[in-house]
């Protein structure tokens, strides 16, 4: 099963988890990180690292963030490069996560990434999709 780390500004992540639990009951391997104004990058990194390790059972973890480029997204992007089967999604909503909740039990992290971006519409993206739009700079050597 894919672990979920819901990381959003203010208390949005906690609100999403509470609503998901009302609908589905206890959500296993799911942690929230509420990013409040004034929390430093180091503290946010520690909170997200702790959440990642608690949510991961070895099948992969999906970071679900509220906005592309926000602090939770940036920290998740840095962390995802150090862990296998780790994906970063931006633009999530309660409705989208409710719809895709059952898929975390049967999809790989890559398949889940593609599915959530496809079903999420224009406001939903992933780190992988963003990287495809802006490939890394490559220096060409002329001999």
From TrEMBL:
The keyword Cytoplasm applies. One of its GO terms (molecular function) is kinase activity. GO terms for cellular component: cytoplasm; membrane. It is found in: Cytoplasm. Residues 1-124 form the PTS EIIA type-4 domain. GO terms for biological process: phosphoenolpyruvate-dependent sugar phosphotransferase system. The keyword Transferase applies. InterPro entries: Bacterial_PTS_sugar_comp, PTS_EIIA_man-typ, PTS_EIIA_man-typ_sf, PTS_IIA_man. Keywords: Cytoplasm, Kinase, Phosphotransferase system, Sugar transport, Transferase, Transport. PANTHER family: PTS PERMEASE-RELATED-RELATED (PTHR33799), PTS SYSTEM MANNOSE-SPECIFIC EIIAB COMPONENT-RELATED (PTHR33799:SF1). This is Putative phosphotransferase system enzyme IIA component YadI. The gene is yadI.
